[in-house]
Amino acid sequence: MADTTITDETRSITLTVSGAPDMPVTYTKMTIAPARVVFTYRWTKTGGLYSTSVEVSGPRRLKAGNLSEVWAEDKYVSPKDWPAWVAELAATNEPRDWAGSAV
What we know:
- The chain is mainly β.
- The chain is built from 1 helix and 6 strands.
- A hairpin with a 5-residue loop joins β5 and β6 (67-76).
- The strands form 2 sheets. The chain has a 4-stranded antiparallel sheet, with helices on one face. The chain has a two-stranded antiparallel sheet with strand order 2-3.
């Protein structure tokens, strides 16, 4: 085991949120009240740490304004497409204890 080297690692971080602004779901007419955010990060020995995606989910906002019991989700692959509050969460919750990293 002493010769084992970690060259690649993927982690998902799930955050339960409240107070985030409602957001439209891409490619639909639905709006959700974000309640859960899942960041997927990847670390590689050659590329360092980067985020590969974020998934935001929560109950659908109905036309009457109340929340549905049915949840919906939206997935963003590129950080440039993230809403500002999601980018802020990512910056403050980025993992720092990667086994192979010097961070």
